[in-house]
Design a protein that fits this description.
This protein folds into 2 domains: 57 residues, Arc Repressor Mutant, subunit A (Orthogonal Bundle), CATH 1.10.10; 121 residues, Orthogonal Bundle (Tetracycline Repressor, domain 2). 69% of the residues lie in helices and 0% in strands. The protein is built from 9 helices and no strands.
Length: 198
């Protein structure tokens, strides 16, 4: 497997939105319930109430089918917040991630579990769900450095991973709640107390 780019938008007969939604729901339900190995073209077709030929006209392989469903349901355009303060930006950025995990955590967790065994999916997961968000956080921190809210030698790469790593640890490892106060608590870890109190 060398290419797992989404397959939506191919030329051909008009797509049925209801059919696409039924297939997407079936894929994601099976992914959460049975993990990636439990998703089969036959199982998806049966649960969605469509023929296998319908699936194969749209997706020639399971990896494309799963990735397409995950991206369509969970993908988003990530914007770097600019509230005027480093702490405010970190809070807003982290709050958006908490919302994402609350909405789609089980799907992302099930999809990510397969990436340890599937390098192509791992690359797609990184490119689709991680790179934009990490870049947005680096922008937030770089503005903090420019405003003097962080020291010039701040390790932006490491600081940028703090919030997402803590939230992912709760979502995927400990099962601790994604509580409403987490964005503020994480911001307190990222932003020095002396800066936050100015």
């Amino acid at each position: 497997m060398t290419d797992v780019a989404p397959a939506r938008g191919r030329a051909g007969r008009p797509r049925s939105e209801a059919c696409d939604l039924a297939i997407e729901g079936a894929v994601l339900d099976l992914l959460v319930e049975d993990g990636y190995p439990g998703v089969t073209m036959e199982g998806v077709a049966a649960r969605a109430g469509v023929g296998k030929a319908t699936l194969y006209r749209r997706w020639h392989a399971k990896d494309r089918l799963v990735l397409d469903a995950v991206i369509h349901r969970c993908g988003e355009h990530v914007v770097s917040p600019d509230t005027g303060s480093l702490r405010g930006d970190v809070v807003e950025h982290t709050r958006a991630l908490v919302t994402k995990f609350r909405l789609h955590g089980p799907i992302l967790r099930a999809f990510a579990a397969e990436t340890a065994r599937n390098p192509a999916l791992a690359e797609s997961f990184r490119r689709t769900f991680l790179d934009d968000r990490r870049a947005a956080m680096r922008e937030v921190l770089a503005r903090g450095v420019a405003r003097g809210e962080l020291p010039p030698d701040a390790d932006i790469e490491l600081l940028g991973d703090v919030g997402s790593a803590l939230l992912w640890h709760r979502l995927a490892i400990t099962g601790a709640p994604l509580s409403d106060d987490l964005p503020e608590r994480i911001a307190d870890l990222v932003v020095p107390v002396t800066v936050a109190s100015r």
